[in-house]
Amino acid sequence: MSEFKKKIECILPGKQWEELYDTSHLPPKQSDVVIVGGGILGLSVAFWLKKLESRRGAIRVLVVEQDHTEHLAVVDAPLVDLRYNPSGCLLLASEKDAATLENNVKMQRQEGAKVCLISPEQLQNKFPWINTEGVALASYGMEDEGWFDAWSLLQGLRRKVQSMGVLLYQGEVTRFITSSGQMQTPSGEQVVLRRINEVHVKMDKSLEYQPVECAAVINAAGPWSGQVAELAGIGKGLPGTLQGTKLPVEPRKRYVHLWHCPQGPGLETPLVADISGVYFRREGLGSNYLGGYSPTEEEEPDPTNLEVDHDFFQNKVWPHLAQRVPSFKTLKVQRSWAGYYDYNTFDQNGVVGPHPLVVNMYFATGFSGHGLQHAPGIGRAVAEMVLDGQFNTIDMSPFLFTRFYLGEKLQAYNIL
Amino acid sequence: MSEPVTPDSSRKKRTLLQFLSDYFHDIHALREYLLRKQILKGNRKNRSFADIQEKYGPYVTGALFILKQGGAVKFQDKEWIRPNERGHFPTEFLEFRKVPVEAVDASGCAINYQGMSNLPVPLKELRFLSLQCCPNVDDWCLSRLYLLADSLQELSLAGCPQVSERGLACLHHLQNLRRLDISDLPAVSHPGLTQILVEEMLPHCEVLGTDWAQGLKLEPDQQPQNTPSPVSP
């Protein structure tokens, strides 16, 4: 009887009508834009696409996310609580980096950020728990700087984009069906331009897949963007040519440690980034602190799994912490976990915008750990590129893919 | 997506519009439009008064902003100026261009993060600020108070529903603060612990916080035999 009821429900207006079998769990057959990756960047692009569309319901957007452990239902909460801590960031610099820090602060102040430079004496007065040995200069954010809960931002954004009509599906993108054509550049060279016509989305734990016809594909797959780009044929060519330039984004494992220290820095502690590259911040009210350290190229942990190497904290992180904050000598690690950075091996900065040869694939990835803070801006930039064909608000042309072929680095410093 | 941010709107019966918006796209769009209008109205109230500042000077601008929101202002050596029930206030203060404002009572006003830029930036000699029961004052707003570090001596945040311990952490800039009222903040998760940490952070300041018995609930079998005064839950 329930089968019969299901069939009747299928026939009613507004539901998908499939004569042979029920396909409500599969993504739609057609979508204007397919976003590969439902993380913060992917959802941000979806949000801006729906916000900037010319009329309500103009663009159909589909977000495909490979891994989610909770259901996609919308929770009816009034406001997103971001748990924002406006405590600012304290960046310490030694003698040799002091000039760079000063230039950076000057540039940030020109753009309107409320950052100030502090000398070691002022630093000791303000934060008596810090050991200023080796510190020549520090920059401190007075206003609008701090940290927040990324997970609640992600959930809030997901809820919002769903209310705007974006479809979120869980699945893995396994194949792109492309068509190509020969074109001639103004200088007479022959280039092969490719268009993605269909995206094959494979369902979890089954061989079933749905081909989704689309007009544009956005690669926001984070650490796995390199693999997704290879599926579209990016990088399949002679090395040194534009066809042979791969997307240099690969997953890198990073550890985060949570420790408890009863006599540690007080409530006013900002996010401290030490000269050595170690960073930490307060977590909650109970004298817990969170921090980590980016390993050098030689010490890179194996990214095939998410196992935590506890010796890493003992040998690499703790000595620097204890040196900078003497009360951290008596800390006790409570928990550690690992996550992936979408690490750009070329210059550690993001890739935004279309690919020159695969004309309807747009990138929004490769930020090597800084994607979260840039996500709203990048989302808008990619949405403008898709809808208008150019960057309107901020010119992101230094972030285009072509810089990998031309070899122009846009180096990012101070990677935490 | 419901009506203005009230936590008990989910407990109230659903209104007719809410019911209809599940079935009709037009009603859905209408409710979105009403929500947007409400947000715009809040933004308008907190718009920047920079153009008035050029003409009348910083103190008068700040005072005008507060009075328009429904708060009260006290200039140095003058009486408190309050709007009456109709929202009208005496305009003699427009002459006080050089007189600094020393006290602002913005209790219950709809001041938010945008509007905060109209407060501390012009009013450099503010000594007393009351933001009691302001529904839109949250942690972001508190991070803007550092500009008053030299002058502010008394601050009251009692009853603000959106202020949490994270915003209280950025009050450490206000080293001249002598009295701080942080009682009855529902968004603070551990009021007793927060008060201790804030007292450690501001050693010269008297912190008025929660009643210490708050949060203590006696087990039924542990209740004393004769209770002269009941412990408040």
From TrEMBL, chain A:
Residues 80-385 form the FAD dependent oxidoreductase domain. Its cofactor is FAD. One of its GO terms (molecular function) is oxidoreductase activity. It is a single-pass membrane protein. GO terms for biological process: mitochondrial respiratory chain complex I assembly. The keyword Transmembrane helix applies. It is found in: Mitochondrion inner membrane. Keywords: Electron transport, FAD, Flavoprotein, Membrane, Mitochondrion, Mitochondrion inner membrane, Oxidoreductase, Respiratory chain, Transmembrane, Transmembrane helix, Transport. It comes from the Eukaryota. GO terms for cellular component: mitochondrial inner membrane. Associates with components of the mitochondrial respiratory chain complex I. Required for the assembly of the mitochondrial membrane respiratory chain NADH dehydrogenase (Complex I). Involved in mid-late stages of complex I assembly. This is FAD-dependent oxidoreductase domain-containing protein 1. It comes from Microtus ochrogaster (Prairie vole).
UniProtKB/TrEMBL annotation, chain B:
InterPro entries: LRR_dom_sf (IPR032675). SUPFAM superfamilies: RNI-like. This is Distal membrane-arm assembly complex protein 2 isoform X3. It comes from Microtus ochrogaster.
